[in-house]
Amino acid sequence: MKKILLISCFCVFTSLLWGQKPPIVGKYWIEFKDKAQSPYCTCRPWEFLSARALARRARAGIAVVDNDLPVNPAYLDALRAKNVRIHHTSRWMNAATVITDSSGAASLRSLPFIQQITYVGRHIVPKEPKDRPLKHRIVTTNYPKAGEGADDLGYGDLQNSLLNLPLLYYAGVKGDGIWVAVMDGGFNNVDTMPFFDSIALTGRLFPGWDFVEHDGGIYESAQHGTAVLSVMSANLPGYFVGAAPHATYFLLKTEDTAGEYPVEETNWIAGAEWADSVGVDIINASLGYTSFNDTTLSHNFKQLDGKTAIGSKGAAIAATKGMIICNSAGNSGDEPWRYVGVPADAKGIIAVGAVTSASTRADFSSMGPTADGRIKPDLVAPGEQVVVAGDVGTELGLSNGTSLASPMLAGGLAALWSDFPEKTANEILEAVYQAADQNTEPDNERGYGLPNLAKAWLHLHGFWVAAQPNDAHQDAFFASNRAAGTMQFLVFSALPDAVQSISLVDEGGRVYPVTDFSVSNQKISRIWLRGLAQLPPGAYQVRVVTNQSTINLLGLFFK
After folding, report:
1. Per residue in 263-283, pLDDT tens?
2. Over the range 337-366, which residues count as b (16 or more CB within 10 Å of their CB) and which as e?
3. Residue 384 falls inside a structural domain
């Protein structure tokens, strides 16, 4: 009996010895105590921030501070000496995400500069080919149309109209000069689909970086990012046009579609820091985190205070760098967990909820408040039955989710901001919040409401707006700046032909020729008059002479 027992024990021992599984490799968030003796200095910001990023901050009066400094390279070298791999770093959080097993992570505790080590999920081995090559783009000129009577926006008209974007579009305000970073799980076929020919062929589409697999291959893994990008950047007039077809787009892959772990929050931060450093103006992230594959890592409501979850802490810092950050609120509004996710709970970013075509909250749109009692979502945008790019070619589809509401708003903000490049993110957002439909009575279903971006645009220009801006009798808007000696007109029609001269006629019939003027003749025309600082105050008629006719545009009073 004793011999049998010994043999049994030996068999179990050898089975464990030879069948032992290798330790599970995971990802760990390493927070450092300081940036002591770093080779970087806030006095030399050009070493880690682009000229465009610095200009954006200077315009907003934002200083370069210690959390802008990269992680101390000596600390990273010490980690590598412990045989761990650096996944990425965070200058804002003074941290690094590393790849190692539990024993490797434990060995790091002996390093004196480490503040904290947090397990953030399994390491998922990349499955996509390394640096997947670009496909050949074949330019499409023969594409479908939305049908008889459709306007330039095509099937994008309704969703853009809910934000009152057509006014901007037909006035030629389409996002020119604004840089938008799109963080998502992948962008299948963006390198071939005709919807993106316009931004690709004019040098306004940039594959940024894959923060999941660490390569430049981002046209892979998911169609989600393709749909998100399309509602902003698509440009097939008469068929489907997005909210900001003339903006510039940087595509960043931060979501790991193979699994859900908190490491994706650190990817979000890495992507946002990359966007900040190159000089992006707006970030859209149609991403959110509450539940994970490892349920012990899932968030609970108490953590939704904007300062507990890793992703929320990073997003709150992102919002202080002069960028506009739009993040989807989440799609749990009709589930037991009905609240916004991480990092939508962060302070300073715009958590975007979804509304229907009737402007009511979509049932699935996640709600607030945050754990510390703040209103969420912040704003809402179209998110139900939204027209998006399909899987291939010129296919279109319909999709639901705050994942579409967020880029709808981000694209609208890009269009709006493009007409005021001298203004800061806060100045743009102030006008947008004032133009939201429940800005004086926000709630935790629709936040401050659905913004009227046309109203915000008119307000920023100083146009006088009637009590009912859609009144058929108001066919032109007027704005003036006495100190600058300028006037601006918005005319709700195209002028019949080229403008030859413009003059102002006072009540006594005296004519004041305007020698410095410019005209943008589109479906909604814009006229700028300059050099009027010495014009006497009074009432004037605006007279426009074209090749074929004389138009008495409107009467005005110049104070």
Report:
1. 999 999 999 999 999 999 999
2. ebbbbbbbbbebbbbbbbbbeeeebbebbb
3. yes
